[in-house]
Amino acid sequence: MTTDAAFQKLAKSKFRSRFRLSESDRKYIADKGLETIRRHAEDFVRTRLAPANPPNDGRQTPMRGHPAFKAQHACACCCRSCLEKWWKVPKGTEIPPVRQSRIVDFLMAWISRQLG
User: Fold this and answer.
1) Averaged pLDDT for residues 98-114
2) Reduced 3-state DSSP string for the chain
3) N or C: which end of the chain has fewer CB within 10 A?
């Protein structure tokens, strides 16, 4: 599935489509830079999503506090249940680094689209 097709799929969800970057998110991104945001997203995905059975699954991604968190919810990459439901990433198996990178690329694409 292309990135555009994935975003079209997400746009049909009332819950997923309501997420937007706030002015404070935009300021944080401007202050830190997109490469830092990417590194943070990589860390969040590696530590909170990639393990086969992450701690607090279903509650490990806050709704606010970092632009990557909002991106994770908007992109259905916030927990293993959402990854399985939306993207067919099976629960109970570790997410390999290549797939982690694709998830981060998708999150960063959402952030870039939000920045316009």
Assistant:
1) 97
2) CCHHHHHHHHHCCHHHHCCCCCHHHHHHHHHHCHHHHHHHHHHHHHHHHCCCCCCCCCCCCCCCCCHHHHHHHHCCCCCHHHHHHHHCCCCCCCCCHHHHHHHHHHHHHHHHHHHC
3) C
Higher pLDDT, 57 or 98: 98
pLDDT reported for residue 57 = 87
CA pair distance 79, 72, nearest whole angstrom: 8
- Single pTM value for the model: 0.93
Q: Where are the domains of the chain?
A: 22-115
Assigned token pair, 71: 């991106």
Cβ-based neighbours of 97, under 8 Å, separated by 6 or more: none
Distance CA 38, CA 19 (A): 19
Query: In the structure encoding, which two tokens stand for residue 12, read together?
Result: 């049909």
Q: Are 85 and 103 in contact (CB under 8 A)?
A: no
Of 113 and 59, the one with more pLDDT: 113
